[in-house]
Amino acid sequence: MEIFGLNIEWLGHATFRIKNSQIIYFDPFEIKPQKERADLVLLTHEHFDHCSKEDIKNVIHPESVIIASKMCRSKIDDLKNQVSQIIYFKPYQKLVVNGVKVESIPAYNINKFRSPGVPFHPKENEGLGYIVEMNGTKIYHAGDTDFIPEMKELKNIDIALLPVSGTYVMTAEEAAEAAKAIRPKVAIPMHYGSIVGSIKDAEKFQKLLEGICKVVILPKS
Q1: CA distances from 97 to 93, 94, 149 (A)
Q2: By residue range, what is the domain housing residue 63?
Q3: Pairing of the two strands 186-190 and 214-215
Q4: pLDDT for residue 79
Q5: Torsion angles phi and psi, residue 182, rounded to 5
Q6: What is the pLDDT of residue 110?
Q7: What b/e readout covers 171-196, taking b as 16+ CB neighbours within 10 angstroms?
Q8: CATH number of 130's domain
């Protein structure tokens, strides 16, 4: 689907392909080898459904650049001879890659725990969300996160890709509150339909934002 001059495809779970002057993949997972190879691959954190080496190999070519959370290093560092460059980010880093502006912000849990006091995504692991600006359009991919205070600082986001499935990430209700704080022009739900969550979570998110924010539920490509 074309939104603000960008072709945006949801490939399932938290995986997106975004195209204009460059081809960007976020968190490739459970996808076949792609004809349209990545200029830029962005990996939010190390979990298997976000940092899958086999799926990354299905999108890269020798000129690809990979930007990843530092926690991904042990999983993907041996791909460095198959791409142009692998860059490990912490929160609040910025870089311009082939005219695409990339900025990282934190992504973490505040109320989703694997055991008492142990979040699925601890802040100290420095998981990432990404703000990407391409051809004048600013996209925020939240990564695996709850509604965190850092979201309230985001400005001028055109498109927000927000997880809605609960359990490990925001529920639809929490994601709607995040969207109200971020105030994007368009919000797109993600992180459902594969490991946890369903289209019902995306539809609930859309309904909660009626009259507040345009929500686009993308078909799976």
Answers
A1: 13, 10, 28
A2: 2-215
A3: parallel
A4: 98
A5: -75, -35
A6: 97
A7: bbebbbebbeebebebbbbbbbbbbb
A8: 3.60.15.10
Average pLDDT over every residue of 36-43: 98
Rounded CA separation 43/81 (Å):
18
Q: What's the longest Cα–Cα distance across the chain?
A: 49
Is position 40 within any domain? yes
pLDDT for 146: 98
Please name the residue that has the structure tokens 């990564």.
Answer: 143
Dihedral sign computed on CA atoms, order 168, 29, 42, 176: negative
**How much of the chain, in percent, has pLDDT values that exceed 70?**
100
For 39, phi then psi, to 5°, come to -80, -35
pLDDT for the residue 216: 98
Q: Write down the pLDDT at residue 77.
A: 97
Residue 220 lies in a domain: no
145 band by pLDDT with thresholds 50, 70 and 90: very high
Instruction: Enumerate the H helices of 67-198 as residue ranges.
Output: 73-76, 172-182
Is 5 within 8 Å of 215 (Cβ atoms)? no
Structure tokens at 24: 């960007």
Total residues belonging to the chain:
221
Domains held by the chain: number: 1
The pTM (predicted TM-score) of the whole model is: 0.97
Position 125 confidence tier, pLDDT thresholds 50, 70, 90? very high
